[in-house]
Specification:
Oligomer: single chain
Number of strands: 0
Mean pLDDT: 76
Length: about 325
């Protein structure tokens, strides 16, 4: 008779574990996504030896960071991306002190541009790995399925554009961090025992949304996540927190707000690409065409905007997780 594996009576992925095995598994599972991300980064995305080919947006951000260190308002406000510029200024300042050379930050940067670029890329990667670990541990504490604990922190890397941008100095990696942080924070708000008077969660949601919009204006669809909070008072607090943190994160470019508004208006209502061509302010065809172009050019950012909602809305508040795989 042909050999047949014995049927244990339950799916293999639901195989019972001893208490020691479960503790060890619970320790390793949140680490799986960060370790896999790091392995893929080292295997497939080594830092390019000639990063000067990345003129846009990498060195636009670096120039803005250098201007911030000199107390000047950066001209690069298209995204607007001010959190990346501010982080870049801090990284350049710390990096320059490690060189042990008595020269300005600007001279150190232009003499060692590759090392500066690599330092910034690795800093952004470290933030992503830490956020993946936080997201996985948060979902584990809330008894989410083990498959989700592994897959949700990896979700931003499912789109090739996001994965490829891991070695770029741009807002894509920070946006992935914000998306995963929103999952970690909002998952708690979906619990049946979550207090409708809690203040920390709406403030955290507003802070993360303010950070997202200050990174990329196309993150505005994320604002719908405010409605995942259970009470209107918490939603109002989250919105006020969003405005407060956005204004503080963009304080260095307040004088550039009129230019930013004109830039966004031209993106939406001009016939040409990137705000060029004739203006058609009241043309629905121009508006719909430009929105379609933005969605096509930045489709992976749209995915990031949907990720927190996808991770939470499919598992409504109070659902029994014992039946989940």
């Amino acid at each position: 008779a042909p050999f047949r594996f014995p049927n244990p009576g339950y799916p293999v992925f639901q195989m019972p574990l001893s208490s020691r095995q479960r503790r060890f598994s619970d320790f390793l599972l949140p680490l799986a996504a960060p370790l896999l991300t790091l392995a893929l980064f080292l295997a497939f995305l080594p830092p390019n030896r000639y990063p000067l080919i990345y003129g846009d947006p990498d060195y636009g951000y670096f120039v803005s960071s250098l201007l911030l260190l000199r107390g000047q308002s950066p001209p690069w406000v298209d995204h607007p991306g001010t959190p990346v510029q501010s982080l870049g200024a801090l990284v350049l300042l710390v990096w320059q002190t490690t060189l042990g050379q008595e020269q300005t930050v600007e001279k150190s940067f232009f003499l060692h541009s590759f090392e500066a670029h690599r330092t910034m890329v690795l800093t952004l990667l470290a933030f992503l790995l830490a956020t993946q670990l936080w997201c996985g541990r948060a979902l584990m504490r809330l008894s989410y399925p083990r498959t989700l604990i592994f897959l949700v922190p990896l979700a931003p890397l499912l789109f090739f554009e996001t994965f490829a941008y891991l070695r770029r100095v741009s807002p894509e990696t920070p946006l992935a961090c914000v998306s995963l942080a929103l999952v970690a924070v909002l998952a708690r708000a979906q619990e049946p025992g979550f207090s409708k008077t809690s203040l920390w969660t709406p403030v955290a949601v507003g802070m993360l949304l303010g950070l997202a919009v200050s990174l990329k204006a196309v993150s505005l669809p994320l604002l719908i996540l405010i409605f995942l909070l259970p009470s209107w008072s918490q939603r109002k607090l989250a919105f006020l927190s969003l405005v407060f943190f956005y204004l503080n994160l963009t304080v260095m470019i307040w004088s550039r707000f009129p230019f930013m508004l004109k830039w966004y208006e031209s993106l939406l209502f001009h016939r040409g690409a990137y705000g060029q061509g004739s203006s058609e302010l009241f043309s629905f065809a121009a508006l719909s065409g430009n929105l379609g172009q933005i969605a096509e050019d930045f489709r992976f950012r749209g995915f990031l905007a949907c990720l927190p909602a996808l991770a939470l809305l499919v598992f409504p508040r109070g659902k029994d997780r014992r039946a989940w795989p």
